[in-house]
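::Encoded backbone::
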Amino acid sequence: MTARRGMPNRRTWTRTGAAVTAPVLLAVLALIHPGQAVSQLDLHDGGVWLTNASTLGVGRYSSTVGELNGGLVAGSSEVDVLQDGADVLIHEPGVLAAVDPAAVTTTAEVALPAGARVSSAAGTVAVVDPADGALRIGRVGTLAELVPDGPADAELGVGGAAVVAVGGDVLTVAADGTRRTLRADGDGAGARVLTAGEPDAQASAAGPVEQATAVGDQLVTLTGTTLRTATGAVDLAGAGTPCGCSNLVRMPPRCWSRARPRCSRCR
């Protein structure tokens, strides 16, 4: 039997309806069905790594569940953790280790010079040997390639310092006061100089840098009671602390009160 002109065939309508209805039905089922629960790995789970010198413990505190949910045993009570997002490093005297936050285990270790100063951010690691001021720069992902006795990326001299800024650039100051900014190469093998300043006689005469930090992309150092930036210096002696404590950067706010004649470390 031949269908009338202008009237669609019933089978054609059936096939068309099925072709349209099936995807719509699947979409509706996908929305209303809860599905099968699976375990998902989230490296940005809000975990905070802590240390306990008395027990030689290094633990991961989960802010989600409010408890310690993993840990490692350090080899020394002088242990510190450098954490930047999912990048976690354990710094002990003579050794630096990278940690896998998901497996809670170390993945790579490198030997460090005695008293080495370590800074890390944005996947970059900077290590300064205080004995000669040699600076070596590497990447967290290739930490094992950071050879402590290999060629230095910069010679800062005794008393020089370096710190990694939040963006990953390495801010340095040499013993003669010269400031430079370096950046690690993509594969972590070496670094290149981005900017270089001139020697600063006043900074050199002030003595070795005792503390260094980065404020944005600016290096700030402390020598004695002198706070120094790239644009100038200020003497903080007695600024709210009649004792003239030289450890002003780490001093708690209450120590700045005029009602307290001496800071908590000097009283």
Summary: Residues 1-8, 16-43, 248-262 have pLDDT under 50 and may be disordered.
